[in-house]
Design the sequence.
């Protein structure tokens, strides 16, 4: 069996890259609903929301920490809070702060499976620094020569991560859909994987991270799935988000991760988790436990 | 495929049980080599070592924290420190503090794969509260009805965990042996698994915890292995530590973990990790992420 030799620094840099937000958060202004801090704002956005939405947010002054915002207590239901945040998101869109509008609602949660405090347009998630969830599917084939992974090349016209490598199927976790149902839906939409195949996707854990991006903090938990595909199955781009699919030997995928920036940042973590679970990395390698721990540096809640 | 339904509280109690040491540590006295804290002592043992070994340990007084001990700086090499700690362990054995003597040396490490600061008799590891490492092997069979796990019943005459259920193969990680070589060795010694089968054991990650036990803190990282066994293979007790082996359907194992105390404490964590990696637990279940995070509550270093 193929195994990866040498130290694991080439992999660990993705743990560091995807968790720059853990340190950067010191420079962000928290915002909350009731007693729960649910997001973090860059200083300019804190000033903008404070100045332009005095009826939505009140200012929380804190000794020895950056000031925060809290949703006005009069917004006492999920519906009220969602309506207020929709107006905020629409303004951010109109002012050119958001790079798009997904028409997809993310729940604002204190923990997965908790009751949503509000629903908010997905395109504003990073700017508002809220916790978000996703599903990533490792679509693989067992051949005589070993495991091969199906990899997508993202469309060069996508607003986010154009031209980067991606999982065969991955997607944000919207409100009102179970992760398993989301996997089946995305399998059909992104790669034309029929339902009867997609239902074989097996949940195998999660990775969590807090990445600093240009527009804010991406604070994610990604549920990981393994989907063993028949050797003769070929995925087909369906919704224009993917330019092409290719099937790569796992050692080639590992080498791409360790030595290049070709994969979309968060895919690296999910594939490193795959490499560990399938025995391609070994405890004997320097940095194994640090790499393993790094897959859930961000709060796994 | 069998899946586990309902909430995961029956599993999560093992995370809590195996991590009682994280909170209890406040009541323990740290001891160190140079600048590195490497162990924790119950108050009575702190007093005993302080009183009886003034040439080995010096006292570190700390404002607003319990006093600590530090190995005397004149013990400047691994050999010197090992010899001093051997004398300490021998005294603890003679005074009835240790429940046995394993004649097996554990390295005293700040992190796995770091240079050992000293070597110390395994039987003193919990009393001295040092970080220790082990290998646990999930030996399983894929049948038409699903996965079955080989489970050992520990000998009722074993000093530790008599009569409890255990992995088919598990062992402490001694100095001077790689985890993989240790797996192969323990496979032969504990279950008569031939080398050519044992070498198929696949490293799949690790769990880490800090458990408070009667005699001190068990601060472990366990490297987890999956070993797929042929349906006709039957393990045989070899070294008297195991009374019998049985092959149980994974749903029965899961039920034992969720509802009884039959398994040796730390085996529960390793098998929960197995259940997650093989898709028997699902993100839809309340407490999934908390359980997942709990598998590495203890420092994974």
Sequence:
């Amino acid at each position: 069996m193929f195994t990866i030799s040498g130290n694991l620094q080439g992999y660990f840099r993705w743990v560091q890259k995807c968790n720059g937000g853990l340190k950067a958060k010191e420079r962000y202004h928290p915002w909350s609903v009731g007693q729960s801090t649910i997001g973090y704002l860059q200083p300019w956005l804190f000033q903008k929301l404070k100045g332009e939405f005095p009826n939505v947010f009140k200012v929380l002054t804190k000794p020895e920490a950056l000031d925060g915002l809290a949703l006005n207590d009069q917004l006492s239901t999920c519906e009220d809070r969602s309506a207020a945040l929709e107006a905020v998101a629409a303004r951010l869109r109109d002012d050119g702060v958001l790079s798009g509008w997904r028409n997809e609602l993310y729940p604002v949660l204190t923990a997965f499976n908790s009751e949503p405090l509000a629903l908010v347009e997905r395109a504003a998630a990073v700017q508002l620094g809220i916790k978000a969830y996703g599903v990533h599917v490792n679509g693989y084939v067992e051949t005589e020569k070993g495991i091969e992974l199906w990899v997508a090349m993202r469309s060069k016209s996508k607003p986010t991560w154009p031209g980067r490598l991606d999982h065969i199927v991955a997607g944000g976790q919207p409100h009102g859909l179970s992760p398993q149902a989301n996997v089946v839906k995305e399998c059909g939409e992104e790669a034309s994987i029929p339902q009867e195949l997609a239902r074989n996707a097996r949940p195998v854990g999660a990775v969590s991270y807090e990445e600093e991006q240009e527009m804010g903090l991406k604070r994610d938990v990604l549920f990981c799935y393994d989907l063993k595909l028949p050797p003769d199955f070929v995925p087909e781009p369906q919704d224009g988000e993917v330019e092409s699919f290719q099937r790569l030997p796992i050692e080639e995928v590992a080498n791409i991760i360790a030595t290049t920036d070709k994969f979309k940042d968060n895919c690296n973590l999910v594939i490193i988790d795959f490499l560990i679970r399938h025995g391609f990395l070994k405890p004997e390698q320097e940095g194994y436990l640090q790499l393993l721990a790094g897959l859930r540096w961000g709060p796994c809640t």
In short: Residues 141 and 229 of chain B are 5 Å apart (CA to CA). The mean pLDDT of chain B is 96.
